[in-house]
Design goal:
The protein is built from eight helices and no strands. By secondary structure, the chain is an all-alpha fold. The longest helix has 18 residues. 30% of the residues are buried.
Length: 122
């Protein structure tokens, strides 16, 4: 269901703005139960279930495709590229290609290169 919802720009804008708002207020006041979309997708990437990993990469791609510059920073700050690089060594062709597609979109953001995520790719 999340994969279908992230196809709608209005939903993505709402959930990402809520995520950014929660992260900015978290430093002032901790809000338990509030989890950002990038962190939820990161948890799915870390699962041992390949289906969940692929679904997570598809959701990340769906969020980034319309405008990578708009949301890439949130995913980079959540250290998503680190785990995407790890999935490039998977034996699953679907997971490898899905991860590669995400990395290509995230690489459009200059912070991707300055935050040392490219080290994982070597």
């Amino acid at each position: 269901m999340l994969r279908q919802l992230v196809k709608y720009d209005l939903f993505v804008s709402m959930i990402m703005n809520k995520s950014e708002l929660a992260e900015s207020t978290r430093s002032v006041q901790e809000t338990p139960g509030e989890t950002s979309l990038p962190l939820v997708l990161k948890k799915l990437l870390l699962s041992r279930d390949e289906t969940l990993q692929v679904a997570s990469t598809h959701c990340i791609t769906a969020v980034l495709v319309p405008s990578p510059a708009k949301h890439a920073l949130a995913f980079i700050h959540a250290d998503i590229p680190e785990f995407l690089f790890e999935h490039l060594s998977s034996s699953s062709e679907v997971l490898v290609w899905s991860s590669y597609n995400c990395l290509i979109l995230l690489a459009e953001e200059p912070l991707f290169f300055s935050k040392c995520h490219t080290v994982y790719g070597w």
